[in-house]
Amino acid sequence: MTINPQAKMEETQIGTEVYSFDPLVVKSHYEIDYIHSYAQDSLFFTSLAKKKLMGSKCKKCGYVYATPRSHCMMCGAETEWYELPKEGRIHSFTTCYFGSEEFLKETPFHLVLVEFDGVNSLFMARLIGADAEDLYVGMPIRAKFRRNLKISPTDVYFVPTGEKAKRKR
After folding, report:
1. What would the pLDDT profile of 114-126 be if each residue is shown by its tens digit?
2. How far apart are CA 49 and CA 143, in angstroms?
3. What is the pTM (predicted TM-score) of this model?
């Protein structure tokens, strides 16, 4: 074992470009190509092209997940694919003022945790078509799908249904 209390991180000449200190505003650059497999989650992504949202349901205890998984987190049994409703309601939300490189040009944007009837867990997605001050817990929303798929989680997003729901206080 090596213990070196004098160890230091390598220094570079590259610093951070600062635009303002109050509030702190900095420039960040990143770019990456990443090749990966969706493996057992492939059906979730290919179903988006058919305008379907797929979660999973435990074959043993019946727990329904809004995001696909191969085994139940409650009892450990295998799950099967389960088609989710296209309508739900906002369980919680946040407005993002900074995001990954893909979303930087679209900031600010809203992320919502979607609650579906008959589903035991939540689904996270973007919400468009409403200003931050109009969002509320319980707001009815529905899924929409990109016509030109990117084969990514952003192929599904939500919009307000236009219906009114009682606001939870």
Report:
1. 999 999 999 999 9
2. 13
3. 0.77
Q: Which residues touch 51 (CB under 8 Å, ≥6 apart)?
A: 86, 145
Q: What tokens does 163 get?
A: 């219906």
Phi-psi region of 33 (alpha: psi -120 to 50; beta: other; left: phi over 0): beta
Contact 127, 158 (CB under 8 A): yes
Q: Among 89-93, 122-126, 145-149, which stretch is predicted with the lowest mean pLDDT?
A: 145-149
**Both structure tokens of 53:** 């949202």
For 12-18, the CB contacts below 8 A with 24+ separation are none
Q: At 44, give phi and psi (nearest 5°).
A: -55, -50
